[in-house]
Description:
The chain is an alpha/beta fold. The chain has helices spanning 2-28, 45-61, 76-83, 97-106, 142-151, 165-177, 189-198, 208-216, 264-279, 281-289, 299-320; strands at 34-38, 65-69, 91-96, 118-127, 129-133, 155-159, 181-185, 203-207, 221-225, 253-259, 292-294.
Amino acid sequence: MPCLISRRAFAASLAATPIAGRAARAQAFPTRPIQFVVPYAAGGTTDLVARVVGDKVGARLGQSLVIENRGGAGGNIGMDIVAKAAPDGHTIGFGAISTNALNPHLYRNMRFDPRKDFTAISLLGTSTIVLTVGPRIPVRTVAEFIAYAKANPGLTYGTAGNGTSMHLAAVQFAQMTGTTLTHVPYRGSAPAIADMLGGQLGVMFDNLPASLPHIADGKLTALAVAGSTRAPSLPAVPTIAEAGLAGYAVEPWFAVYGPAGLPTPVVAALNSAFVAALSEAEVKTKLSQAGFNPRASSAAELEALTRAEYERFGKLVREAGLVLE
Length: 325
């Protein structure tokens, strides 16, 4: 009998070792710098937010957050890297309404399923989409722009990429105004803005933080914002709904995700760091001045939002008949 008890105890200790090992590793998190994948080009809204918040998160966790910009396919390329990363918390991604709710319904061949392949960590906040024109487009109001677009069918506009919330905002705008607009997708806001400033592109639907400096110095003209309320950083610029399109509103959100299967202690550590960083006055001020609305959440709240938005955009895309390769 003593021998039998000893064997059972030994077997139990062996069975518990992997669990104990995983728990110890989770509690020790992070053990090295964290790769923070931003699935868009440098210089845009996501890049700005990632760097401002990432510095604070890194300081709280005791390891730096290394920003890696991996643009392309409306953010799908970067988030696919996150989906396939080891579930230890050392690779996280800057997800969005596009990558985690809209794109799966737009693209024929998605490499990941946002409902199964990610662990929600925290909401980062919301942004404002702004409709801007460059100097070669002779309009100053939404009404003038609609008239100009109808007189110039096929008028080109740029966005930060196929399947982004900016793309969706433009599609909804064209549907509601009866205009025919031609989409020119870029690999992020920065290259599109460069073409706007250079005169190669005349119209853009963009996230406000990236375009705001150029609006402020008069190089771009903001016709309206796409949200349900005016942007605090552009109080004189009306919403598209106020400008005549009643019921129009598109408000993109951004969030942090890790690969599926992140240990609960790792999720808790990351969530705590992001919530604390977003509550800092310095961070709030920098992001608000740039046109971004910082807002943290629990992991559960982000998971619920992601699933609800996934269903909402699925219905919208099906009704609009939108498909991207």
